[in-house]
Amino acid sequence: MINITLPDNSVRTYEAGVTGLEIAKSISEGLARNVLSAKVNDEVWDATRPIMNDSHVQLLTWDSEDGKASMWHSSAHLMAEAVEALYPGSKFGIGPDIENGFYYDIDLGDKVITEGDFKAIEEKFLQFAREKQSFIRKEVSKAEAVSYFTEKGDEYKLELIQDLQDGTITFYESGQFTDLCRGPHIPDTSFIKAFKVMSVAGAYWRGDEKRKQLTRLYGISFPKQQLLTDYLLLLEEAKKRDHRKLGKELELFTFSQRVGQGLPLWLPKGAALREKLEAYLKKVQKKAGYVQVITPHIGMKDLYVTSGHYEKYGKDSFRPITTPVDGEEFFLKPMNCPHHCEIYRHKPHSYKDLPIRLAEFGTVYRYEQSGELHGLTRVRGFTQDDAHIFCRPDQVKNEFIGVIDIVLQIFKALDFKEFIAQISLRDPENKTKYIGTDENWDKAEKAITEAVAEKGLNAVIVPGEAAFYGPKLDFMVKDAIGRKWQLGTIQVDYNLPERFDLEYIGSDNDKHRPVMIHRAPFGSMERFVAVLLEHCAGKFPLWLTPDQAIVLPISDKYIEYAKNVLNLLNNYDLRAQIDERNEKIGKKIRDAELKKIPYILIVGEKEEAENTVSVRRQGDGDKGSYTVDAFAELVNAEIEEAMGK
RNA sequence: GCCGAUGUAGCUCAGCUGGCCAGAGCAGCUGAUUUGUAAUCAGCUGGUCGGCGGUUCGAAUCCGUCCAUCGGCUCCA
User: Fold this and answer.
1) How far is the CA of A555 from the C1' of B39 (A)?
2) What ipTM, to 2 d.p.?
3) Fold adopted by A2-61
4) Does domain A549-642 have CATH number 3.40.225.10?
5) Which of residues 528-567 of A touch strand B (CB under 7 A)?
6) Cα A362 to chain center, whole Å?
């Protein structure tokens, strides 16, 4: 007999070899019907795998992430089985569960799967699911594994087996399909009640663009049909928040083929919004001791040879611009730091001057691969809210903390609650990718980790994600459909000061090397506006929105009064317009609501007589009569509350 | 850059397997209406059907190619 400890710390006794499923049955039939897998001593197992020793067991259902993962992973197998049945001779790469569903990478030979084929795959899948196929776990030797897939002719699986150790290899068999797999899986396929192929895409084998591109099928499955319906509805809703759609509807920005792909054109309202953001950040930075600088959009090739960027990115950049007579080469600046280094160099510095914090809304141009461009989040020309801090080594940590404070303050003002802080460190396996000495890297990584710890930030640490010149702390936010984008970034750099031979005179009257910190709290104005737009679904915070209010005269008899109101609003520094069109009030309200203008001010006979406006809040209906003074107070109070003053 | 899909008026879309001058709603313009909290009515303007080339008596529709966009992959200083 063995003792099984459940999550509530109760202990039950079973015969050795009991399975998660049997434990569930002993608790209740209902639970047994919903158990997908079991966590046994912190390892997720099949619910049908015998437990031989005393263990802590947690039964996993759809409600847990691990339970979902089990179902999705099993669904990937089933999808593969369906594909193999429909397209015999298919070879299979990998098929993991992912955040929303799962995928399988498949070599289909000459067959090209398109959306038209999805239905057949779905039907075959559901047919297999209804057959209640069990997932049977088998431990196999490396030799057996190799022999199976050699016979099947699946070179992808063979390659995967090469990397595995003998004695740790397991196969899972379900229906006609046998796969190399670590597991775990759900007890049988009848748990899967709904399935949809979401999309098809090309994906390089093992993520290497030099290797063959396989067909990646994305799918998602659920234990209830209704959950699939709900999920699809959720996706529809998310699409309505897409910044590309909202940007068009709200006339914030546009693109022109004639200007060039990935080169955004900011329309008046978008420009107004962006200027508000810039003004806000300038104010915050001024308080934090930053000074603004301005540098040109191009720089000589030699500047980037010095910085090391030419060697690293020269081939992937826009081709250089050359002068007509001497053929001197200039590059569109892909970043601002080399220019700022030259500003630092323009005169000698004392240790007493440091830190020097040079800030610039610097527009940069990078040649991004055409397939990478994406609305405003990935573009070829964009403006960084850049700054470079030149400081003494003993000031690094404090400066770093100062920047974290700015980022957090901004996120708070804009109501960004869900962000991920990520510390990117050097890849310990492949140190040659990076420039700079071991010692400097160690120092920089230590400074970041300590600063983050001191701020109590909950950060994930990812080795191998560092920039080539230094480690960094990034702030990532998800967009409407769950894609992660990097916004704010803080990067320690011991490298550029070296390359540009930057120095300061210390208290010992000797020359010393300053440390540089690159930082951009928004990241880029383009990406930040895109993500902000998706977060607020186009309903920007009152302080930021291009038009805070719109005055709607009931008829053209009241246009004069509406203009008086507008004047008063302008005196209060509120941004407002008048809708002077000859339309009925209902129509004007509808249009203003659709434009997501926060306050709608209706003026007619009554308001003119009483010297008031009738206030309507976007999405929230009639708020009653206010004098313009009282309305201005209302607006200011709302702004102050939101900014957390 | 790679794989797949898409591309019709400013916007959202219809136009089936090639055949009357390419359509609708919204937006815009003109006129009527002078309006009280999410769409007043009428008329009008607007499109080398992404570009170029081909097949055909005939192409928005079929084929090729280029461009752009979308979903991924790779990349992201």
Assistant:
1) 17
2) 0.95
3) Ubiquitin-like (UB roll) (3.10.20)
4) no
5) 554-557
6) 23
